[in-house]
Automatic annotation (TrEMBL):
GO MF annotation terms: heme binding; iron ion binding; monooxygenase activity; oxidoreductase activity, acting on paired donors, with incorporation or reduction of molecular oxygen
Native source organism of the sequence: Gossypium tomentosum (Hawaiian cotton)
Cofactor(s) in the UniProt record: heme
Recorded superkingdom: Eukaryota
Protein name: Cytochrome P450
Residue positions binding heme: C75
InterPro entries: CYP450_71D, Cyt_P450, Cyt_P450_CS, Cyt_P450_E_grp-I, Cyt_P450_sf
Keywords: Heme, Iron, Metal-binding, Monooxygenase, Oxidoreductase
Family note: Belongs to the cytochrome P450 family.
Length: 135
């Protein structure tokens, strides 16, 4: 991701002492920022509730939270992506009933995570969709 502020403000925003030469492209490691223990309690844990009452506005210039970029170069499709994801999820929930395969119980599911470039479940969740009967 490119840092989106004018070059004369970058050192002040990031509290840098060195000057950046003109026309330098500055890349920001958002993965590291979003896992910085100075910015987040339990930064390495997946806690989506931390954003419920957060003062961090992802539309502003808070660099703590930048999943879609920031400023003028923020992802122009953010609203479309969110609406599309909600539409797909709503249709899946509306048209199908879901069950675990092979009579497995919810209590037996392994919900632990595997950390790599992306976070995924150590054991993939397998569900069986059944067309919902509206009668």
């Amino acid at each position: 991701m490119l840092l989106l502020w004018s070059q004369d403000k970058i050192p002040q925003l990031l509290n840098w002492k060195a000057m950046i030469p003109p026309k330098t492209i500055v890349l920001v490691n958002t993965w590291a920022i979003q896992r910085d223990p100075k910015l987040w309690d339990k930064a390495e844990e997946f806690i989506p509730d931390r954003f419920l009452n957060s003062q961090v506005d992802f539309r502003g210039q808070h660099i703590q939270y930048t999943p879609f970029g920031a400023g003028r170069r923020r992802c122009p499709g953010i609203k479309f992506a969110v609406a599309g994801a909600e539409y797909v999820l709503a249709n899946l929930l509306y048209w199908f009933d879901w069950k675990l395969p092979d009579l497995r119980r919810c209590e037996d599911l392994d919900m632990s995570d595997y950390y790599a470039i992306i976070i995924r479940k150590k054991v993939p969740l397998h569900l069986v969709p059944m067309l919902h009967s509206f009668s």
